[in-house]
């Protein structure tokens, strides 16, 4: 279990090394104070995964370093029951001149394992890392993915009560990422506590029970993963312009408003309603109005399921279709999507931005702009989220 109460951490910022020396010699202040974390409080129960979201500089790394003991807080309390291990930065605690096998010993000792525990689990660690004979090669010959494999294998076999996972899992091939995710789920099912820091919003939605959002060292959201992700998206959009004001309701559009969607209609091509069949074409009609002259506009749509998980998203930039509009111009846009997706309720979000994404600049973003429901199948039934092209072939052999 993890309990964090009223945590504060600040750093002294010096304009130059000279100012640092002046302060050390004279005792007079030559620095500015940067508050990295301010009155941060939260708890994580056994068997719970808490996601942590925030833009760069929000305080995520400082929080993890405080929780692992690398830094000490200015004030506040951190209570972690049981052994805590962290997979924070690739290569942390590793010696690149030693072999992978020797690094297992060194790193596991740093995590609090005894030499007896290390030897008992050495073969399991090597097998999970899938490094094979490379385990005896110097770590400097490893790729970043191989280092991640070894680091995660050691951390998960250290029998931690709490696991801190940073962005490291974004490295490595898809198969090993799935393997790590499954091990995290198993760890949770056994009552383990996990703090999961990631910019992979889908991973946060799928894995986490709750999520917090950090902004400027403060917790600005502590809610369900879907709600926290929407809050994080609003923060990223707010960066686009000082004029963009974060709205408290999910169903309010935000952005610079240089171009906006003034009307939206979603209906099935055959059903002529928001209730469609799986495999039916979904017709989306959006009306755009430009409040400024813009030469580069990308219109994007995003379909989410009832869990808030992203099912499908695409924009006109990815289709190599450039939109330019004059101030005051109104334009209708029609989007057709073959909704070969599972039965259930879905929401449609839409965004307007330059280039491929809204992270650097956002004209307009609206979560839950419209809803629709998939009921029944036009073609054969399937399992999962969506239908993929699939064929079965048979060959009869005659002996």
TrEMBL record:
GO function terms (MF aspect): ATP binding
Presence of keyword Nucleotide-binding: yes
Entry superkingdom: Bacteria
Tagged with keyword S-adenosyl-L-methionine: no
UniProt xrefs under SUPFAM superfamilies: P-loop containing nucleoside triphosphate hydrolases (SSF52540)
Domain (ABC transporter): residue spans on this chain: 21-241
Keywords, comma-separated and alphabetical: ATP-binding, Nucleotide-binding, Transport
One Pfam family here: ABC_tran
Endpoints of the signal sequence: none
Family the UniProt entry places it in: Belongs to the ABC transporter superfamily.
Record's protein name: ABC transporter ATP-binding protein
Species of origin: Vreelandella vilamensis
């Amino acid at each position: 279990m993890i309990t964090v109460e009223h945590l504060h951490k600040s750093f002294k910022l010096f304009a130059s090394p000279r100012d640092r020396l002046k302060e050390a010699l004279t005792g007079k202040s030559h620095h500015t104070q940067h508050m990295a974390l301010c009155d941060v409080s939260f708890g994580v129960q056994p068997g719970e995964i808490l996601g942590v979201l925030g833009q760069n500089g929000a305080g995520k790394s400082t929080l993890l370093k405080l929780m692992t003991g690398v830094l000490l807080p200015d004030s506040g309390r951190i209570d972690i029951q049981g052994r805590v291990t962290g997979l924070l930065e690739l290569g942390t605690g590793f010696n690149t001149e030693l072999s992978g096998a020797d690094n297992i010993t060194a790193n596991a000792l740093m995590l609090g394992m005894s030499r007896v525990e290390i030897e008992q689990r050495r073969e399991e660690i090597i097998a999970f890392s899938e490094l094979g004979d490379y385990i005896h090669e110097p770590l400097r010959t490893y790729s970043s993915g191989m280092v991640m494999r070894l680091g995660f294998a050691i951390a998960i076999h250290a029998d931690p009560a709490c696991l801190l996972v940073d962005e490291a899992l974004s490295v490595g091939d898809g198969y090993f990422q799935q393997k790590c995710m499954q091990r995290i789920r198993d760890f949770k099912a056994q009552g383990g506590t996990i703090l999961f820091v990631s910019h992979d919003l889908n991973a946060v939605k799928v894995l986490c029970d709750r999520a917090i959002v950090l902004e400027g060292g403060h917790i600005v959201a502590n809610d369900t993963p879907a709600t926290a992700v929407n809050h994080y998206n609003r923060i990223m959009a707010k960066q686009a312009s000082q004029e963009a004001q974060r709205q408290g309701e999910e169903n309010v559009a935000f952005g610079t408003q240089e171009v906006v969607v003034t009307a939206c209609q979603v209906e099935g091509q055959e059903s002529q309603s928001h209730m469609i069949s799986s495999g039916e074409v979904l017709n989306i009609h959006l009306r755009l109005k430009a409040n400024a002259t813009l030469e580069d506009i990308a219109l994007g749509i995003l379909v989410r399921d009832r869990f808030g998980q992203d099912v499908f998203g695409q924009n006109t930039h990815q289709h190599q279709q450039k939109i330019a509009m004059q101030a005051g111009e109104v334009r209708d846009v029609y989007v057709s999507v073959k909704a070969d997706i599972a039965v259930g309720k879905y929401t449609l979000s839409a965004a307007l931005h330059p280039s491929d994404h809204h992270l650097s600049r956002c004209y307009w973003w609206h979560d839950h702009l419209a809803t629709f429901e998939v009921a029944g199948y036009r073609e054969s039934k399937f399992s999962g989220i969506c239908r993929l092209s699939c064929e079965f072939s048979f060959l009869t052999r005659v002996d």
